[in-house]
Amino acid sequence: MPVIRMEFTIQAPQQICFDAARSIDLHMESTARTREKAIGGVTSGLIKLGESVTWEAVHFGIKQNLTAKITEMEEPRYFVDEMVKGAFKRFRHTHEFVVLGEHSTKMLDIFDYSSPFGIVGKVFDWLVLEAYMTRFLRTRNEYIKEVAEAKAQELQHIAKKSQE
């Protein structure tokens, strides 16, 4: 069972980071390369505890659907999405946000999954899937970081203007 762990420092408040990570619209923007789009459940806006989304995407040249549900959430500290239906045997994806300072947050991303097909799935993980998912998640997290930092700068600029 591979576990992919990533950590990013984002120059933005915890709430902005939390909301960026659970935004369906931002998810679609960040995964444009795989043509990922929400086709069922929550299809835009911010997903909440107990809600699910069905994604359609092209991975390895194959159109696939995957449904994930938000199974845990403590706003703005963390949320967990878990696969309900899809190509994995299972996955649990934890998104955690730790305050480092007034305008700084550490985002932890932990993707714990199992592939189907027994030993064939394990070999596929080792040869291809783990590296593929690491790149996929890194690209998405870098996009979240970029958007959250831009939003934080915009809000700081507005706050400075209102003080003048």
UniProtKB/TrEMBL annotation:
Entry-linked Gene3D superfamilies: 3.30.530.20
Superkingdom: Bacteria
Protein name, entry field: Cell division protein
